[in-house]
Amino acid sequence: MLERIVDYIKKENEITVEQLKFLLELKEKADIDYLMKEASETSKKSFGNCIYIRGLIEFTNYCRNDCYYCGIRNSNCNISRYRLTSEQILNCCDTGYKLGFRTFVLQGGEDTFFNDYKICSLISCIKNEYPDCAVTLSVGEKTKESYKAYFDSGADRYLLRHETASQWHYSMLHPKYMSLENRKRCLYDLKEIGYQTGCGFMVGSPYQTIDTIYEDLMFILNFKPEMVGIGPFIPHKDTPFKNEKAGTLDMTLKLLAIIRLLCPKVLLPSTTALGTINSKGRELGILAGANVVMPNLSPSDVRNKYSLYDNKINTGCEAAENINDLKKRFEKIGYKIIISRGDFTV
Ligand code: SAM
């Protein structure tokens, strides 16, 4: 039965809700190992044993939004807010470039201080200094005009998780003024402009069900993103979801594997959140079919302020400066980190 389902997903790049349920409920180690092996072999067909790295620069933790799950939400008064200067951001790129990073990911809350002019100038500066590098933005929901201006300034990719493709679920995770409709509008605008675009969702977020996950997968198949970001939901003590349960390693790995089987070429990170819930999470993510990691390049004194969830790891292998440790860990499982922009290819 398991073999038949995996074969079907691989051949058709489709999945039924019953098949999803079956896979997510697998309990036997041998069965789970089989799913992981099939996913990692699929990943190897697309990327060999190479892992792409991205230098993550968390440049502001100010946010106008109030997502119920997120530690940097506007209503959180217990957080110390920061913004990096252009100089600090360029220093991060300099450090990153020397360490072998050829993609910089600028991520932040929706901070109106960084208007389009500032964001465009920042992108132009980075692209002028590092013309062989890709710039990925992850700064939330904007107008199509803003996205176009960033693209024209040189931005290559954009990460905007859709968070959940279910209207009802979306309304349980966000205040009324935020809408799934606008989130999706943003994603379609980004794609149309020409960005390599990434959507995604948290695994185990409050009120998530197999049906909402199925909707997520259907959205992904329909939208055909170049990147998919998934990681476990982890509660943050200063949010309305502080008492909710975290997403599990098992569920995240199974979903990574399923997404890899459905989308063999998609750029799929093994996320920080996965490394936070399990010390071997990063490696296990790769063995479940992920092919990207995003070590933290932010200045070390702000890292613990970008606290999306409790106990977010920011030292050790998570830190860009410890890339050699990460290399060794991946070598142990038969993979190598490469120096490359790591673009999406068909
Ligand atoms: N503001 C941008 C946006 O909205 O896309 C980027 C920053 S936002 C903090 C990046 C991602 O962090 C979100 O898309 C969300 O999925 C994830 N995130 C936020 N809170 C989280 C939590 N408690 N656990 C796991 N992931 C979380």
State the CATH architecture: Alpha-Beta Barrel
Bin the strand percentage.
Answer: 5-15%
Q: Please tell me the overall pLDDT.
A: 97
Strand order of the largest sheet: 2-3-4-5-6-7
Tell me the helix content.
40-55%
Largest sheet: 6 strands, parallel
Low-confidence stretches: none
Q: Helical segment tally?
A: 14
Spatial shape: globular
**Terminal Cα span:** 31 Å
Q: What would you give as the CATH superfamily?
A: Aldolase class I
Tally of strands = 9
Q: Could you tell me the CATH topology label.
A: TIM Barrel
Strand and helix order: HHHEEHEHEHEHHEHEHHHEHHE
Rg over alpha carbons: 19 Å
Output the keywords.
alpha/beta; 14 helices; binds S-adenosylmethionine; 346 residues; six-stranded parallel sheet; TIM Barrel
Topology:
Elements: H1 2-12, H2 17-24, H3 29-47, E1 50-53, E2 55-60, H4 86-99, E3 103-108, H5 116-129, E4 134-138, H6 144-152, E5 157-159, H7 167-173, H8 180-193, E6 196-203, H9 210-223, E7 227-232, H10 249-262, H11 272-277, H12 281-287, E8 292-293, H13 300-303, H14 323-332, E9 336-338
Parallel strand pairs: 1-8, 1-9, 2-3, 3-4, 4-5, 5-6, 6-7
The structure holds S-adenosylmethionine.
The site of S-adenosylmethionine has 20 residues, from loops.
